[in-house]
Amino acid sequence: MNVSLNGFRESMVTFEAEQGVAAGAPVKLTANGTVGPCADGEVFCGLAENERCGFAAVRLGGYVRLPYDGTAPSVGYQTLCAAANGKIRTAETGGRSLLVADVDEAAKLCGVIL
């Protein structure tokens, strides 16, 4: 891609983190002020940027590059959900409509605007 979307409408919040939250993986709200790892097919609220001492910085808005599983999502608005092992995938049911800005099939990464 010849342009950069890094920094676009970035929005970060600190939450308490359940065990299993890992940097670079999608997360879901599990309780008041708490995030946890997503299981396959679950809707994710954002991306854990880091986790330390029981807290996680979670990106809720802006441009992120996420690993995907299965078929590469197409650019444009797609319905996405969490996949196994900290990845995302195209949702068959449920999911969240997000803008896929770019797809790198060789690296199995896609750029998404949350």
Strand content: over 45%
The total strand number stands at 10
Helix/strand/pairing category: mainly beta
Order of helices and strands: EEEEEEEEEE
How many structural domains in the coordinates? 2
- CA gyration radius, whole angstroms: 13 Å
Largest sheet: 5 strands, mixed, barrel
Structure description:
The protein is mostly beta strands and 114 residues long. It has two domains: 11-61, no CATH class; 63-113, no CATH class. It has strands at residues 11-17, 26-31, 34-37, 46-52, 55-61, 63-67, 76-82, 88-90, 96-104, 109-113. The strands form two sheets. A five-stranded mixed β-barrel has the order 1-3-2-4-5. Strands 6-10-9-7-8 form a five-stranded antiparallel beta sheet, with no helix packed on it. The protein is globular and about 35 Å long.
Helix and strand topology:
Elements: E1 11-17, E2 26-31, E3 34-37, E4 46-52, E5 55-61, E6 63-67, E7 76-82, E8 88-90, E9 96-104, E10 109-113
Parallel strand pairs: 1-3
Antiparallel strand pairs: 1-5, 2-3, 2-4, 4-5, 6-10, 7-8, 7-9, 9-10
